[in-house]
Design goal:
single chain; 339 residues; alpha+beta; five-stranded mixed beta sheet; four-stranded antiparallel beta sheet; 11 helices; globular
Length: 339
C-alpha cells in the first residue's frame, strides 16, 4: 500500500503520462503506445484515486468519464460576448465587405488588407474557460451574452485539454471553438438511431448540438465528438498581436486547430482559397458551409468594431446550400450496405 505522498507523486506521473498520450492519439492522430498499455495506466490511476479520493484533481483524465445525469443546465454569462458572423453569399458581397472594412480602417482601397482565411465549421459553438491553465467551465453560445454550462459533457470530448500544455498558463482565458461530429460517425449514429426506432438527426451539426445538450453525459461520451478551436474571448494579460499567432498558441496548448488556414493580402487570394476549399469540400471528414475571412491583426479588429451581435472585421463567405441526405430512405440504403 502506497503512502499518501507516494500516491500523490504516482497520480501526478500517471496524469501527465495519460494527458500526453491523449494528445498524441486524439489531436495529432499519432499514438506512441498500445491501447493495452494506455488502459493499464488508466486502471492504475482509477485504483489510486479510489483509495485516495481527495487526491483526484479537476484535470484528472478520469474526469472525462461520464458522471451521473444532470437535472438541468445552469446559465453562464460570458465575460466577452460570443458574437455571430454576418454572411456574404457572392464575390460581389465580399467586395462590398472589403470596401466597407477599408473605410472603417481609414485605408485606401488600393492598399490590400491582411486577412486570415480558414474553414467555417458547421457545428455547435462553445466557449471554454481556463483558470491557471485548468478547464473550469464550458458553455454554449446561447444568445451571445448568456449560454448554458455544459462542462460535464465537454469534459468527455477527448480533443479538449483538461489542462493547457504549458508551464506558463494565463491566469484566465476564454477559448472559443466548434464541436463537430465527423460525417462518418454521424452516418453510423443515424444507422443506430434507425435500428433502435429512434429519431434521426437532420445533419451532423444537429447531432453535435444534441450530443452536447444531453443531461446524461454518458450519451455525450458515447459519440465521437471533436473540437476545433479558433476564437478568443477574454484573455488576461495577452501579448498576442494577431489571430494567426493566437491559433498557433492554441495548438501549442494542446487544442486541435484547422488544417486549412492561411494569412493572405487582399481579395484575390481570398477568392482562390474559397475556390480551393470548395473543390475539396466533399473530401473533408467534417461538414463545412463556407470559409471565414477575418482581419488578422487584433488592432485592426478592434478598430473595425462590431454592430449588433456581429464583428465588422470578420465575415462568413458561404457556399451554396446542398441537399442533406437524411431521409429515412437514405439511411435504410446505407444500413443495407453496411449491414
Amino acid at each position: 500500500m502506497l503512502s499518501r505522498n507516494q500516491a500523490t507523486q504516482r497520480i501526478h506521473e500517471l496524469t501527465s503520462f495519460i494527458h500526453h498520450h491523449d494528445f498524441r492519439y486524439y489531436v495529432l492522430d499519432d499514438p506512441e503506445i498500445s491501447d493495452s498499455a494506455y488502459d493499464l495506466c488508466m486502471r492504475e490511476l482509477i485504483d489510486l484515486e479510489t483509495c485516495f479520493p481527495e487526491l483526484r484533481a479537476l484535470d484528472s483524465p478520469t474526469m472525462r468519464v461520464a458522471g451521473k445525469p444532470q437535472e438541468g443546465f445552469k446559465k453562464y454569462k460570458h465575460r466577452v460576448p460570443m458574437l455571430s458572423l454576418a454572411n456574404v453569399l457572392s464575390k460581389q458581397e465580399f467586395l462590398d465587405f472589403d470596401e466597407r472594412t477599408h473605410k472603417l480602417l481609414e485605408k485606401a482601397l488600393e492598399e490590400p488588407l491582411e486577412y486570415l482565411v480558414e474553414l467555417k465549421f458547421d457545428g455547435l459553438s462553445l466557449s471554454l474557460t481556463y483558470e491557471d491553465g485548468q478547464l473550469v467551465c464550458a458553455t454554449t453560445r446561447g444568445d451571445g451574452e448568456t449560454g448554458e454550462d455544459v462542462t460535464q459533457n465537454v469534459r468527455t470530448i477527448r480533443t479538449v485539454p483538461l489542462r493547457l500544455r504549458t508551464d506558463l498558463p494565463p491566469k484566465w482565458v476564454e477559448i472559443r471553438g466548434e464541436a463537430l461530429l465527423p460525417v462518418a460517425d454521424f452516418e453510423r449514429l443515424n444507422e443506430h438511431q434507425l435500428k433502435n426506432g429512434q429519431k434521426l438527426f437532420a445533419n451532423p451539426r444537429n447531432a453535435a448540438a444534441g450530443s452536447i445538450r444531453q443531461l446524461d453525459s454518458s450519451i455525450t461520451a458515447s459519440r465521437s465528438l471533436t473540437l476545433f478551436c479558433y476564437g478568443m474571448g477574454y484573455f488576461q494579460n495577452s501579448d498576442v498581436k494577431d489571430l494567426y499567432q493566437y491559433e498557433k498558441l492554441l495548438a501549442e496548448w494542446g487544442f486541435r486547430i484547422g488544417e486549412w488556414r492561411e494569412v493572405v493580402q487582399g481579395i484575390e487570394p481570398v477568392f482562390k482559397f474559397y475556390e480551393k476549399i470548395e473543390n475539396l469540400r466533399e473530401e473533408l471528414p467534417f461538414e463545412i458551409d463556407g470559409i471565414v475571412v477575418k482581419l488578422n491583426r487584433l488592432s485592426d479588429l478592434d478598430r473595425a468594431g462590431f454592430i449588433a451581435k456581429s464583428p465588422r472585421g470578420m465575415v462568413a463567405f458561404k457556399y451554396p446550400p446542398r441537399q442533406e441526405k437524411t431521409t429515412i430512405e437514405d439511411i435504410i440504403v446505407q444500413v443495407g450496405r453496411t449491414g
